[in-house]
Amino acid sequence: MAKNDFLRDVWYYALPGGSLKRGAMVAKTLLGEPIVFARSREGKVFALRNICPHRAVPLSYGRFDGQEIECCYHGWRFDQTGRCKEIPALIEGDSLDLKRFQVKQYPVREVQGNIWIYMASNERKALPATDMEVPVVPFFGDKSYQLVVTLHFPCYLDHAIIGLMDPAHISFVHRSWWWKSGRSLFEEVKAFDPSPYGFTMRRHKIPNVALGYRLIGGGAPETEISFRLPGVRIEHVSTEHHNVCNLTAVTPLSETETEVTTLVYWTTRWITAIKPLIKPFVRAFLDQDRQVVIKQQEGLKYDPTLLLIRDADTQARWYYQLKAEFTRAAAEGRPFNNPVKTQILRWRS
Question: Which SUPFAM superfamilies match (predicted)?
């Protein structure tokens, strides 16, 4: 798939709900589009194209009273649907129809503390065009995350996603006393099944348990890991007494910048007490992926042919196949047909 040809008609991760307070605005660029997110006085989140149709000043530079956004240039006011409600320069009795002036509105949903945005392929038909649902982590119902870390990766979306799902890099990129020593490689044998718009590694006991997993407590941990388009990885780790879920979402900001957000949910109370100590380790773990991607950019400047080898890179192959099928299905106006088949994969890591 060509660069900058991001998937459309899908839900992308936008931002953690906790970063958007009532009566506040946050400006972001997603898929190359300027967007302003705002939360009303009542707590409802909405998103508009961050450009005033009058003189193109970003609306985020204006004022938000908890109901309407006022442009800082001429005071044009827009409601939560993007409709123009007032133009102060007009004299009383002016017949200008304000309905002519509309800022694009984006569908958004807030689930489990996360704000998702639907990026449509057709501005005239912005409502969800597929049956794809907003991702949710299992077991935690409507509870919000307890820890969040966001990092910017200076790369195209595909390289960030493939780097994060790559099973063979762990012993080399994540060499840490608190995770992997890198001294030994073990054979991994995992079963995979197709799942909605992606694939899932079947639940299994975690061999050679790293210190990070031992912190959960409550017995031998088991894990299930799923991936789905456009770039969401969910890992559910459980023991006899506890559950921990990690949701990692990859969102393209532009052709050269990608945002990776990892959120953690847990039931282990004592982990909450030491959360300030855990967060730096989570950030360090994610930054190890970021640093190797930065190094990768040096080689990518020469546009080399990239290799995908057998089982260790099969998940990367599936990712490209999933993207291609999603695009074809949309173009042909037919249901998505998951190309992933049940399979056993083997690699060393």
Answer: Bet v1-like (SSF55961), ISP domain (SSF50022)
